[in-house]
Protein 1
Amino acid sequence: MNIFTDWPSYLPELLAGLGVSVQVALLSLAIGIPGGLLLAIGAGSKNKLVRVLIIGVVEIGRGTPALVVLQIFYFGLPASGLTLTSMAASVVALAATTAAYTSEILRGGLQAVPQGETEAAGALGMNRKDTLRFIVIPQGFRVAIPSLIGFAILIFQATSLAYTVALPELLSQAYSIGSTTFNYLSVLLLAGLMYAAITIPASWLTGRAEKRLAQHL
Amino acid sequence: MPPMQEKPLTKPLAIRLDSIAKNYGEHTVLKNVSLTVREGEVTALIGPSGAGKSTLLRCINLLERPDTGCITVEGSRIDAGTNFTTKDLAALRRNVGMVFQSFNLFPHLNVLRNVSIAQERVLGRTRKEADVRSLQLLERVGLADKAKQYPSRCSGGQQQRIAIARALALDPRVMLFDEPTSALDPEVGLEVLAVMKELAAEGMTMVVVTHEMQFARDVSDHLVVMANGAILEEGHPEDIFTDPVQPRTREFLRAVLER
């Protein structure tokens, strides 16, 4: 059996692919989570129109598969004159999905902050913006962090969808090695292990984060 | 409403509530309540649960917005029936400190930050200035040694004293207390009452919703008895405690005193 024996020769290309996958995941999260926070805050707006609009955006974002969003950005948008590279399309699509999902996670976190604290801040004369910034968001984020890490793991796995837009990430690299060597089993197995090598330690982190963040709450 | 009678040599008004009304759907919480509080006076609000005491108190700094009525605190006036700006609200709250039954400290900030944060954001003090003032106030409530602790490491009585320091840090001219000792053991409540007595002795204008009859009797200058969303009677605490006019007041006082 040469399942394992060829692994060393696959490694350089696969590691390069893993680098791209990690990059896409980190960029998507770095753009998507702040977006999710804005949506979460907007969903609590006093203006009903704003609220309805945001809930609509979030529901559509959560209801549409990430793969479809990705295809729209890469294959659909050029029809309207906007052409994105496969990297840009992947990041934008996954960031949009991240924003939609994390807005719900963060909204739950923000709502977990007791109303009495918001009242106390108001009674102290703090305006709504300061109350959000110094009281509600720091605590809401802490509550949300374990779920956010869980979601980050899912988004990292979802970067494999970018192989459909020819982005040279981990799965694309494995696939192209497979198509030249016909050793699909071997190379895909290795690729799967490489995904797991990131996701499993990341999920250990969730448990530790939960414990640490429970302090002072 | 008939105008309040002006006694000679009375101090100026700190708070004036005119015909405050509040409904939650079908349920009436406050029925055109009017109340005045003079500078330096301690007013105690007592009465059975559901009388509207806390709601009335929360109307003073508009944590609760009345349906109709006018609120004047230290010259800032808000007509609840009309639209007012956040600037009007900020001006009114600028002079009012509040202490809650459940303390409502910020659990993610240490004690010093709890007392300093609003000074920095609202008064524009630097962190250093705010911390100096905070430490003075913590010293005053006997908790300077807790400055670097988190609220969760403090007892209920300590948390409430920190909450008092936090409110005082903004130099309010009026302090509102919403059942400040109700969540505390009777013994622990005493340390909070001691701080409040000191504050009263220094001439702070205070409005206190309380079930502490001894405090209401000994410390307050003016006693207000509420029931069913209205003021039953008000006057000097000693007069009301010894000879209440209203049968409902008599009934209430008997229930809380003779147990």
Protein 2
Amino acid sequence: MDTAEKLDKNASGRNHAEEPLIDLEEQPMQETRYPEHTVGTPFVDAPKMRFRDVNVSYGDTQAIHNISLDIGKNEVISLIGPSGCGKSTFLRCLNRMNDTIDICRVSGELFLEDQDLYDSKMDVVELRARVGMVFQKPNPFPKSIYDNVAYGPRLHGLANKKFELDEIVETSLRKAGLWEEVKDRLHAPGTGLSGGQQQRLCIARTIAVSPEVVLMDEPCSALDPIATAKIEELIDELTESYTIAIVTHSMQQAARVSNRTAYFHLGRLIEVNDTETVFTKPEHELTEAYITGRFG
Amino acid sequence: MDRTYFGQHSSSQFNEALESIRNHLMEMGGLVEKQVVDALDALLRADSDLAEKVMQAEDKVDKLEIQIDEECARVLALRQPAASDLRLIIAVTKAVSDLERIGDESAKIAAMALQLSEEGESPRGYVEVRHIGNHVRNMLRDTLDAFARFDADKALDVAAEDNEVDLEYRSAMRSLVTFMMEDPRAISRVLNIIWSLRALERIGDHSRNIAEQVIFLVKGKDVRHISMDEMEEKVKG
Amino acid sequence: MSKTTEKVRKTLARRYRAERRFKAFGIVSIVIGLSALLLLFGDIIGKGHSAFFEHYVELSITYDPETLEIEDANDPEQLRYGNFEGVVRAAIQERFPRVEERQDRRALNALLSTSAGYELRDRLEADPSLLGQKETLWLQLDDDADMFLKGSEKQRENARLSPQQREWVLDLEAAGETRSEFNRSLFTSGDSREPEQAGILGAILGSVFTMLVTLALSFPIGIAAAIYLEEFAPKNRFTDFIEVNINNLAAVPSIIFGLLGLAIFLSWFGMPRSVPLVGGIVLTLMTLPTVIISSRAAIKAVPPSIREAAMGLGASKMQVVLHHVLPLAMPGMLTGAIIGMAQALGETAPLLMIGMVAFIVELPTGPLSAATVLPVQIFLWAGSPEQSFVALTSAAIMVLLAFLIAMNTLAVVLRKRLERRW
């Protein structure tokens, strides 16, 4: 258990008197305080997405506290932090995937360019076409490779004729670096591909609807290092046309793929900085402790 | 930020590896410091035995350098250190090569001491050697101290002291060159002293380099190749 | 050897013994279950196999217009009232000319099935030129004579035939004038009071119509309910309440549904009795919980990652369900529906309440004509006094079991065939 959790427990008043939860000698981090505001540079000029004072709660538990952050155009921002720090929850707010959870409440300002994500005028279907998502586990539909990629464009009516659809499928697969591997078996089931290929298929499927922002929720956690390297290279290429927000548990991955890195800790956004800064000279001690591996 | 611990990594082996690197660096620092002191003594007292010892100590320093580099490479490969750990490894690898150079310079001084003991003492320059030598010795001690305690302020002092050493070195050079022009017969012996002074000045520069690494390690800021004022600003600011 | 190893060794023998005991218990249980099943099948097949065959006797028939009281074989009116039995009687008496006593003659006539006359009529109707001609035909024996011929020595002693009749039958058998044929009427005719003429086609058709109604109602309703509850319904007290009650409904004794059908569909809505439509509706009520529960399980088994993927691409809730959840859950839903159907197929109690227990000779022509169903037919025959009905009952049970096994196999095959891996 880390100190912050202990502090939380203490504050909640349980076992308050009898059981001192903090052992001073063993916990030299006990001085740790959350910063009043996120340290570093959470804001950028002309952001693609803008968030101010975002709070998210599940029932009575608050998962995210007052997060303010900008995501710049065509940048890769990685969200890192220990498990349960709210990074995935935050990511899922960005295209309202949290809507499916009944008890989930989101407040604060969330903007995609100048459109409020949670405004009643905002159509969630349109939002998800503009902000695509790639998930942790490769989840191709149990259909053919072609149908997997064509699903989104068909759904949104992006192609009227067969050849237009063929073209979209091909460009998407090419962008995802999968075309050469699958062009001869487009009608084979997508589930028959290897894990890394499946994940690239999922990325192809996501970019087939030409989103503006691509969210990636630990896209490589189920993949081997080679497949991971391919995806990372792909992310690098995708930045030319897309804005990417990626949640990852691998700090090396965050360091490799992202321009900026945001560090979450127990539902708070502690620090946002250039990735280089975060990994060589983080400003906040919690960030430092996390990326040097000083948390249990 | 004070960073006085290597502990608290989730991995205790990581802690031990970093601790071991630091200990070896300190050991190497101690050896090199002794080399410098002994070389100066040998020069000033024309002690050829001591000079031989200094030159022999070189071996041990070289071995330590290789060992520390290997340890750093291992940590880089196995642990992918980040932030302060990464800075520590970078600073150590650089400091180690500076220390090794200091060792080399000490050996050069010892060689000069041997030569002087054969050719006879130099008519001039010992005052300067003693003076600059003391300075440089202090710098080396302080910089090692700063490294051991992650003390950026002390490191800044060392960097400032290097400027003084440079000034003194230049004035010593001027006076010795003047002397050589006056008495050409003593040129070869005075040259030995000049080489020694030159070596001492280099030791001062290397100490300053190490001090800069200490500042990088503690503050995460690169203070190489900038003026003293800017450096001060970066460290204090 | 370390101390731990020693200790471990000591307990090993005990552990292995316990393991063997446990295995033995399992094997014994399976043997008990299997032998019960074998016993059941053996008994049913042993009793019922004879019903698939029946005996015929070879007789020389004269289509005598006088005996028949038919002048024009093309006149359906005359054909209908023709005395074909007289011709049959004449034929058998011709075979045994020495039987003269009136009583004996009657006993002799009783050896032949009443269906023999109908057979002659059908032949004459098909070919009117036969009138006045002679023909050698195989005619059906009465069930008692049939049973006698089929039986073993011991069973022959108990047959319901007089000593005289036995003699005649044995005489015919010895002369090679009897033969055993496949019992076509079992599969081609409806119920009858005469065992040798009774068939299960009526019951099968009744079952088929009932099942069609049940399938047509319970499958869409069940799936719609399951999808709503699983995908759309808000999670609140009310939906919890519905969920609990669906589970309760699955445990309600089936006769209660029969009573419900009687009270609501027959008395209130005034629907006709004994028709597959009402039977189907009642069985729908009974199978709905099964279908809903299995469909919900199938929907739950669809990995959430698929839903997320579709939603992440901007599919609406409806599209997610129609494009992904439903196709993926379909094998499970089908299996559930088929198993529910199989349950309904074997159900008797609720149908008794709505009058599907009537004696119906005509073959049903649709869901609105009076009919009975296979299990009810079995129930009816099991209660009949004639000895031959015992075999018929078992034969009907075999047919019913065959249907059930076929349906369950279909369920397994469908699941295997349609199941997708992800």
Protein 3
Amino acid sequence: MKRVIVSIDGAGKIYHLRGLGRKMSVAALSDFTLDIFEGEILGLLGLNGAGKTTVMKLLTGLIFPTSGKVSVFGLDPREPRAKNSIGFLPELPYFPPHNTPYGALRYYGLLSGMSGSAIAAALPVVMEKVGLAPHAAKKISEFSKGMLQRLGLAQAVLHSPELLVLDEPVSGLDPLAIHDMRALISGMQAEGKTIFLSSHSISELEKICDRVIIMAGGHKTLSVERKNWETAPGALESLFVEAVRR
Amino acid sequence: MKYLYTARSVAAETFRESVKNRFFTVFAVFAACAIYASLLAGVMAIEEEARVLSDLGFGLMELMTLAYALFHAAMAIPREMETKAIYLVFSRPVSRPAYMLGKAAGLYLLGAFMLAVMAAIHLSLLSLRGFPPCAAYFNIVACIWLKIVIIISLALFISLFSTSPVSTMVISAVIWTLGHFTPEARFLIEKAGGFSGALLKGAAWMIPDLQLYNLRDAPLSASGGWFQVFYAALWALAAYGASVLLFRKKEF
């Protein structure tokens, strides 16, 4: 039995939106329960507005649950020890364009509590791993979307976290960049990391995930393991369509 | 210790980003041109050339630093939230008070750097015209910086609840302007009685007295400037405390 490293128990999230003299509440997540096991690649699949990013933000402590409980390595996600165990790649990450990749990564290394010497040792390794070593001297403003995504992954793995949370890691990438990103993610699993990623792309998740959670309207509608979609007629797509139309 | 380490990293990054911004070069060139353009006004002043060159220079230094620092203070946090760069910060073990301190310290440093550059330009102009700088030159520059520290701290606080960077800049600029008229305002408030007088008295406490730092008009008091330092530190601390309270539960 593998160790549970992330546990979400009946979590709910309500966003309060304020307009001109109006206050509106939107339930982004309702009674959401999920366990993530050590070493697996778990995918989160859903339509726009299904609540995928909300789940990721809850795990990384960027937002707080309105109800229920979230724990990462047995800790509250807001605790520094929990945050140190997570590497987060948001959708379309932003880096100051005048900076170099080394400069940006150095800053995030310092924020992760790494010493100057630890950063200096980790930088070339990480840059090589994500395939940015030949572009180390360039400014970020010269980077393509694929290179930015690689840099995003580099900042997520720089401090050697046990859990990687990747929000739409292949969003907007060309087929070759998607192929490379897939190889990177699989390589990280081989290193023993646990990976939790969200995507709109059914085929992408089918290729790399061990298990997929399907979300609709802020709810978990289905949890599918690889062996289930591999034997199902119409594979993961038919299970997804059925689940979101239910 | 970790708190200071994080604050130092955020401060260094904030300073670096502000200086590498393309607007910085535009501001620096414009400031240099404006300070040197005061030569014209100096020549027209004939016998008072030294005083005109000196006063215009200080005024321009203050306004340029204020404009650039305010621009960055108003944008610093909203921009990180808008670009989602803040996700990469707070998904790490970064405490919010340390982040706020780092942002403020980086902007204070930016103000000091801009003043140092412009003071060098101004001193070169004075020396070109053969005028020695006044005895209180560096005290005056230090007082300008203390004013900038107060207004940056307030702008950072306002940016946490204002609807846009433009409104932050406008509110801060209004506070800046009112801050130079607090003695006059207090005199008028004393004259007003009743409920409105009490209300105005309360409101007056929300505006820093920036006239304290106007050494061009009044020399330093017997305290030798320590009161001004203490007063600025108090305002910066109060604004920092209020910002931390507001930022503590903010979600991204």
